[in-house]
Amino acid sequence: MELMVLGQEKNEDKPAGGCSAGSCGSTDDQVNRLPDHIREKVENHPCYSEKAHHYFARMHVAVAPACNIQCHYCNRKYDCANESRPGVVSELLTPAQAVKKTMAVAANIPQMTVLGIAGPGDPLANPERTFETFRELSEKAPDIKLCVSTNGLALPDAVDELAKHNIDHVTITINCVDPEVGAKIYPWIYWNNRRIKGVKAAKILIEQQQKGLEMLVERGILVKVNSVLIPGVNDEHLKEVSRIVKAKGAFLHNVMPLIAEAEHGTFYGVMGQRGPSPEELSDLQDACAGDMNMMRHCRQCRADAVGMLGEDRGEEFTMDKIEDMEIDYAEAMVRRAAVHQSIARALAEEEGRAAPAGINVPATSRPVLMAVATTGSGVINQHFGHAREFLVYEASPAGVRFIGHRKADQYCIGDDTCGEKESALTTTIRALSGCEVVLCSKIGFEPWDELEKAGIRPNGEHAMEPIEEAVAAVYEEMGAAGMLAENAAAAAA
Amino acid sequence: MSLSIIESCVNCWACLPVCPSDAIYDARPHFMIDAGKCTECEGDFAQPQCASICPIEGAILDHFGEAMNPPGSLTGIPPEKLAEAMAEIQAR
Fold first, then answer.
1. For the segment B3-15, what is each residue's pLDDT rounded down to a tens digit?
2. SS3 breakdown of chain A: % helix, strand, coil, rounded to 5?
3. A368-492 has CATH 3.30.420.130 classification
4. Do A65 and B75 make contact, defined as CB atoms within 8 angstroms?
5. Structure ipTM
C-alpha cells in the first residue's frame, strides 16, 4: 500500500495539500464511509477525521475581524485569555503577520497540517484580508491545507475566489432552514447596504447559505456543515437541516452544543437560554446519523487556536515571540514530510492490527460510557489530574464507539477575578456524569476516592494501550463480573 | 455634519470598508471618523453604512450626539435585563 506523505506532492499539478495515495491507513468508521475521493482529502485533517485528530494538529489565524451578521450566541465585545470558544481571540493579525505565524508554527509543530481562517468575525466579510493570507500561504507553504469557515451570507460571491486559491474545504454554519426558526437565532444581517432584521433577514441568510453550499459542491469543494444545538429553538429542526444539507452534498455534519453563560454578554447567555446536556447532544447526533456522517470530536476552538484539537499552544506563538524566530521553510518542509510519513506509518500499523474479534459479553448487555485521558496518538497516556478534557467512548455488545468529549475545566477557569470558584475535581466529576469508568495512565489517591464516591471507577491498568482495545477489555471484565445486566447500573455504582 | 465613534467601539473593522467616503480610520484606543470627510452617506445610501453594520449598541453617534443604535436595538437584550445580569456577575 502506498502511503500518503504531505509535502512530497508539492511539485505535482495537484492542489496544495490533499492526499494522492489510494488509502492512508485510517480505520475510522466515519471516514471509511466516505467516497474515496473525499476520504483522500480528509485523512490528515484533524477537524474532519476522528482518527486523524489523535495525530495531526491545526491552527487558526485571526485575520478577519469584521462580521456581516449577528448571532445570538456571539458577543463581539468579549475577549478573555482564559476562554476557549469560537469568536474569541487575543491578538488580531494582518495578513503578513498571519503568514509569518503560520510558517513559524508549521516549522515548530510539524504535525500541523491545516490552516483555517475562522474569524473572529466572518472570513468572507473580510475578503481582502482573508484571500491575501491564502494567496501568500499557497505560494510559500504548499504543504499546508487551507480551509475557511463562514456564516454563508457572502459565500456565493466568494466561491470563484475560493476555488482559485485551492481551498478544498469550506465549513458553513447552518443552524436552520426555516426563517421562522432563524429569526430566533439571528437578530440582524447587513445586506445590500442595509441592516435587515427578523424573519426577512433570516430568509436571505438561509437562501445565501443554501446557494453557497450548492455552488461549492458543483465545483468539487468539500463542504462541512456546522450547526449549533440550541435546546427549544432548533433541536428538532436540526434533523431536517441534516437531511437537506446531506442531500445537497455536504460530506459531514457537525452538531455542536450552544455555549451560553451570562458573563459572555451574549443574548442567549443573558436571557438564560441553556445549552444542551451531553446526553441531549449525543441523542441528536445519533438521530441525524442515519442521514449523514456526523462529527463528534469538535472542540469549538478559538479563532486563534494553535495545536492538537483540545490543546491551545497560541501562547508560544504570539507576534512578539515569532518576530525573533528565524524560519527556513524549505528545511522545515523536509522535516514535516518525515513526520507526516511516520504518522502515516503509525496509522497503517493501527489498521494492520487484527480487528477485535467482537466483544465477548452477553448480547443483552447494557451499554457503558467510559471516559479516557489521552494526549493523542490513540493511546491512554495521560495522568488523570493533567487532563483538561476526556474522550468518551461507549462500549456495547456491538463494539466500542467514540461518542464525544467532555471538558474537565470550565470554559472560564474561575479564578478570583472571573466568576465562581469551584474545585477542579468537583467540576471534573460533574463533567463526567453518565460515565462509569475513567481510564488514565495514573491517578492520585484523593481523586480516586472522590471518583468512587461519585460512582465512577478509576482505572490505571491500561496505560499506553490503544483506547478502543482497553475500553473493550474493561467492558468484558465488567461483563464477567456480572455488571452488565439491564438493571445492574445501580449495582455497578 | 458628521457621525462619530466613541469609546465603546471594539475595533472590529466592520465599518471601515463599507464607508463610501473613506472617512473611517484605524486608530487607538478605537476607530475614528474624520468629520471633514463624513457625509452621513447622503447621496450614496439611504442609511449611514457604518451605523448599519456596527454590532455595538451606542458606539456610533449622530451629529446631535445621539446613539444611532440605542441599547437593546441590536442584540435584542432588554437594557434592564443586561444591567441585572451584569450586577449579578459583579456581586460574585
1. 999 999 988 889 9
2. 35, 15, 45
3. yes
4. no
5. 0.95
